[in-house]
Amino acid sequence: MRRIISVLLENEPGALSRVVGLFSQRNYNIETLTVAPTEDETLSRLTVTTTGSDKVIEQITKQLNKLIEVVKLVDLTEGSHIERELMLVKLKAAGSQRAEIKRTVDIFRGQIVDVTSSVYTVQLAGDSDKLDGFIQAVGTSGVLEVVRTGVSGIARGEKVLSL
Amino acid sequence: MELLSGADMLIRSLQDEGIEYIYGYPGGAALHIYDALFRQDKVKHILVRHEQAAVHMADGYARATGKPGTVLVTSGPGATNTITGIATAFMDSIPMVVLCGQVASTLIGEDAFQETDMIGVSRPVVKHNLSVRHPEEIPEVIRKAYYIASTGRPGPVVVDIPKDMTTPNERYEYVFPKKIKLRSYNPAIRGHAGQIKKAVDMLLAAKRPIIYAGGGVILGKASGQLTELVRMLGYPITNTLMGIGCYPASDKQHLGWLGMHGTYESNMAMHHSDLILCVGARFDDRVTNATEKFCPGARIVHIDIDPASISKTIDADVPIVGPVDAVLKEMITLVKESKEKPDADAIASWWKQIDEWRAFHGMRYETSPDVIKPQEVIEALCRLTNGEAFVTSDVGQHQMFAAQYYKFDKPNRWINSGGLGTMGFGLPAAMGVKLTHPDDEVLCITGEGSIQMNIQELSTCNQYNLPVKIINLNNQALGMVKQWQDMNYESRHSQSYMESLPDFIKLAEAYGHVGVRIDRKEDLETKLKEVLAMKDRLVFVDIYVDRFEHVYPMQVARGSMKDMWLSKTERV
């Protein structure tokens, strides 16, 4: 099953390599990984999406917790949560395609953030399924380049991940 | 206000940490530190002949004393040579701090002379590693390193020290922190009371219980509590290879150790039990055999300081995370207070069954009038030292024979590389033990393959007068490899034969020691007595043993715990 694990990590050099190293060392899967400092400059927040059986996920969270620099973590998929990913896509957009692409971007609530005579650059945010859906809708033949940030997530309601 | 250079701060911190010995080897990036070491006499440095041996020495010291070991090496090859030793300590959860020199911070990343990214190289085999980024941090980094290494589930910690952090003429204020608190590291100090209660209820209701104890009992200094609980309950106990000595082997409730080369009765009792109380062990593959066939009728209570060890390979019905001594203490109190008592009839018939398994004599070997059997050597040693020696071993058949036939009644006396299985561990580990236990008998039981992996340390033994006794069970082959080739590869002995063995007697003499060869059965006992009588000499005893002997019992690959070979022809 796919899981989103959110980690508060000491913002220190080498801490990220320990997390990434753990996944390869123990043969766990990383699908996406995002990391950035938080409002508290001593902490980074890292979000990793992974897949595995319940037993594997339990081991992943336990092994992550064992890393000295991991301060706290939560498996967001255990409760209701919001996940978002940002995508920038360059699409071939010439002649009659231009209007069609514009309409599809609107349907997906994306924005065209850069334009040339033959290319649209589209920005789109949402969960990973929505981003996949957009690519499918415009068709891969028109896609020139895709860049995705990977998943960030946060719990719904009053639950917070903090010290 | 006291101003010290980084190098002096480092040594001073070690003094304040109460460190007695450092095992190490100097080199460019560590020279400021070695100079600071020279200008004091509180911390003693032992100069080894290869950095790997320094780590095993620190490891042997830690296993025998329960205190963290300390290693000091230079950057690059000095640091990378420690990796096998660090991995050995990591697999067996041994507390240790490895201080590594590093090229100056201004050179890091430039492929400077003797530069290696030791933080990166060591990462998968350490509990944690730390880099010094400013000389002023040194006392705190050192304090932190020992704190992390020796608390919770212990393990090795590497500290990387760039040369410019120890420059002699740059001085800073020295403050040794009294206490270390890490917001992200808080090992459990007691178990969950509700879980402990549940475990005790299950224990008292069990019909076929068994206690399965591991190295965690020794690391957690809980042998006393374990022995008290087991005696109070009157239940059978087995332990892992790493747990040898956590419960007296001579006691009638003790079934011997379990697993791949464990006793018949231990493996049978585990397989047929209805309740397993696992204390500080981790259901390692060398214990469980095929996990899907593991102990089908047993419910499992698992006590461990490390939550990640619980339900990793075998699911626990009642997990208890906490230090084993504290948890066992609470269990003892609850058993005493409980109105429920063990089911006397059920336990009596369980013991009757176990005694039948015992009577089957799974641990047997055939003697011969002509050749010395390796098992006989160990039994003779156990007799002649009253079972009270510190015994280190290398890895292979001799290790299994030593563990099977030397009977340990006390913890911290059986010292081997159980997790990583490191050949070359035995001699330096024995040296680490002998250094702090000069009046105790220290035996290194080894083979002609393993001993050659760190033989250069005979020189260190000479320099520091470390009269250990090296018992070389010489079968002129890599015995365990050969055994597997006999069993699984139709006796094709690919590269397992040791041609051109050195004359170990002359070799020992060349290093300034005594060499004794034993190749006749009738000499065994008398010569061993003579060897043990040479209290102040290192004696290398080269014993020619049966070249064809196998270690039994041996679990059948991919079987359950009860599937074993008991001899070359007998399978149960």
TrEMBL record, chain A:
Name of the protein described by the UniProt record: Acetolactate synthase small subunit
Domain ACT: from-to ranges: 4-78
Pathway: Amino-acid biosynthesis; L-valine biosynthesis; L-valine from pyruvate: step 1/4; Amino-acid biosynthesis; L-isoleucine biosynthesis; L-isoleucine from 2-oxobutanoate: step 1/4
Record's catalysed reaction(s): 2 pyruvate + H(+) = (2S)-2-acetolactate + CO2
One record GO biological process: isoleucine biosynthetic process
A GO cellular component entry from the record: cytosol
Enzyme Commission numbers on file: 2.2.1.6
Oligomer and partners: Dimer of large and small chains.
The keyword Transferase is annotated on this UniProt entry: yes
Tree of life domain: Bacteria
Gene Ontology molecular function: acetolactate synthase activity; acetolactate synthase regulator activity
Family note: Belongs to the acetolactate synthase small subunit family.
Biological source species: Marinobacter lipolyticus SM19
Record keywords: Amino-acid biosynthesis, Branched-chain amino acid biosynthesis, Transferase
Uppermost EC category: transferase
InterPro entries: Acetalactate_synth_ssu, Acetolactate_synth/TF_NikR_C, Acetolactate_synth_ssu_C, ACT-like_dom_sf, ACT_dom, AHAS_ACT, AHAS_small-like_ACT
NCBIfam families per the UniProt record, alphabetical: acolac_sm (TIGR00119), PRK11895.1 (NF008864)
Record's function text: Catalyzes the conversion of 2 pyruvate molecules into acetolactate in the first common step of the biosynthetic pathway of the branched-amino acids such as leucine, isoleucine, and valine.
TrEMBL record, chain B:
Assigned keywords, A-Z: Amino-acid biosynthesis, Branched-chain amino acid biosynthesis, FAD, Flavoprotein, Magnesium, Metal-binding, Thiamine pyrophosphate, Transferase
Catalytic class of the enzyme: transferase
Cofactor remark: Binds 1 Mg(2+) ion per subunit.
InterPro entries: Acetolactate_synth_lsu, AHAS_TPP, DHS-like_NAD/FAD-binding_dom, THDP-binding, Thiamin_PyroP_enz_cen_dom, Thiamin_PyroP_enz_TPP-bd_dom, TPP_enz, TPP_enzyme_TPP-bd
Domain Thiamine pyrophosphate enzyme TPP-binding: 394-543
GO BP: any one term: L-valine biosynthetic process
A Pfam family it matches: TPP_enzyme_N
CDD domains the record matches: TPP_AHAS, TPP_PYR_POX_like
Entry GO MF terms: acetolactate synthase activity; flavin adenine dinucleotide binding; magnesium ion binding; thiamine pyrophosphate binding
Cofactors that this protein relies on: Mg(2+); thiamine diphosphate
Pathway the protein takes part in: Amino-acid biosynthesis; L-valine biosynthesis; L-valine from pyruvate: step 1/4; Amino-acid biosynthesis; L-isoleucine biosynthesis; L-isoleucine from 2-oxobutanoate: step 1/4
GO terms under cellular component: acetolactate synthase complex
Domain Thiamine pyrophosphate enzyme N-terminal TPP-binding, residue spans: 5-117
Family membership noted in the UniProt record: Belongs to the TPP enzyme family.
PANTHER family to which the protein is assigned, alphabetical: ACETOLACTATE SYNTHASE CATALYTIC SUBUNIT, MITOCHONDRIAL, THIAMINE PYROPHOSPHATE ENZYMES
Name recorded for this polypeptide: Acetolactate synthase
